[in-house]
Write a structure and sequence with these properties.
The chain is mainly alpha-helical and 640 residues long. The protein folds into 3 domains: 6-145, no CATH class; 153-490, no CATH class; 541-630, no CATH class. It is 58% helix and 4% strand. It has a 5-stranded mixed β-sheet with strand order 2-1-3-5-4, covered by helices on one side. Helix 8 packs antiparallel against helix 11 and helix 17 (314-327) runs antiparallel to helix 18. It is globular, with a radius of gyration of 28 Å.
Amino acid sequence: MKQSHPWIAVAVRWALPFTPLAAGVALGLFLCAVLESVAPYRRLLLAGCLAGQMAPLEPWAILTGAVVLTVLAWIVWSWLLGRRSGERLPESLRQGAIGFIPLLLLMVFVPLVHSKAGRWVVDPLLLACVMTACAIQSAQWTKYARPVREPDDENARAWLWTMFLAAGVVFATLAVLQYRSWNVPYVDSGINEEMLYKTLQGQFLRSDAFKHIFLGEHVMLTQLLWLPLYALWPSMEWISILNAFLVAAGVFPIWGLARRNWGDGRALCFPLLYLLQPALHFAVAEVNYNTYRYETVLIPLVLFGAYYLERERWFLAALFGAMVLLSREDMALVLAAAGVYVAWRKKRVLAGIAMIAVSIGYLWICLHLVIPHFNTAASHVDTRVFQGLGDSPGEILRNLVTRPGLFWDRIVHPDNALYLCYLLLPLGLLCFGHPALALIGTPIVGVCMLTAGVQASIYFHYQNAPFALLVAAAPFGGARLAEVLSNRLRWESARTQVLLLTFAISGAVFATIVGSKSPLSINFYAPRSSPFHYSALYQRTEHTRLLDRIERMIPRESKVAASIFAGTHFTHHRACLRFPESYHAADFVVVDMKARWSKGSRQEMQLYGEQGLPGFELILVEDGVFVFRRKVDPSPPSRP
């Protein structure tokens, strides 16, 4: 059939080489809009971090840099594509320009950046554009097929162990450096380590932060399995190293899951995808500077549990399920949802019903018996995070039935849309191909979305279990999506697999570089004026060396009250008390006015002025650090 408008094809052919230039302009204008309209705001993971990075730059420099970098990327990519296809440079330039078309949409997003209501969708759209552009380039690359030698099982295992060791060393090194730089807070890292130390000393799950044992706050029993290893070297450094390598060990179950549907070579992409997730980086070292939370271990526990569940190795699946259940009381929701999965997908109806019954029963016992029994200050669990929905678990459930509108308003909040975006998009949405497994984490995600605080965020530990389930669902889900896409496009399955892997890994890499907390991120090297200047957490200074001297100066048998970041270094003393809340019973008080979160300390110090703390004498003041010692009663002893 004769082509009706041949001039259109000619126009498109000649316009294609100008696409990268236009894409560069669109990218530059988008970044300028971000700089102008978005403060370095933590809720916007990508746009907020970009604004913090670009703060020192002028708009003309941003626009010029975006155009130059885009055009250079187009030329280099086209040259590589020409070498692979054997085509001449003009034709490869036209082919290479196609992949930059999605970036043109950034021009459309500029009004959204300026709009207060539309700003919430900027991050998902930016990430989707980058991922789509990379996927198109992947489709072009694989169009010219060449035989690829898959690594054998031995080489694949060597790569897997390399990823595990590299990730473990990086995570552990950062944690140790942060602790030695006095940038790990007593709440919650110091409290968690202190409980293990006091348990070894015969005070079961005790912390001086509470008047009761920790079972009055949360029922977290699996951490007791750490005691034999922790006893070898009781310290925050050792427990942080163990924590880091356990999280890195998640690469093994993911690779095992991937090998069932992918070749050994492509299966290695999934451990890499796992290690490149911003959600993982914040789980290891969150924004609140905690390097050790026991909840972080939920990630490898859930991954191993999912692996053995999918392999139908029931004893090991039950063992890891029990460890997940005992890790924290709210994990009963995860196990109950897993029971539904076992009954529905695995056709083990009785086992699934038993899991649901045990999980719900365990949750009821924890909330109504264990926590109220040990918490002498409250009659039921703390529900402050559900402010506005009810003051007790029973009232919250009644309001769920009688006033569902309250809950719906929380669920549809823009923060929750961003939360889901940051969980799903860096994984390339591959978990959608295996929704049954991914949905096991829905109860916890739903609870987080109902809170009035920061729980619905990848920055903190509440998302660890759902995140692990999404990662576990990605290998099988990706294989299923590749099969569907192969049938629709009539491509070879290998080509669609590479397309989906490129889509996912490019999103993970971009999100890691722009918005994560790792040495791979530009945030690590952000200007000191930026709130995302993370490398400062790991730098020892004269100030930290002064704090080291003070730590050695105070006897171990003393009770020490310290500001929040200093307190982590006194957990092995006779008592570690928080300043300014409970310093009156202390023998020594250490106040670091240069530490993060020093507002409360400053207010307390200003309250007493030059007179100092009542009942204490000032024995050292240097570089913003105040050390007080309890005064000795000068009155002579009474005669017998």
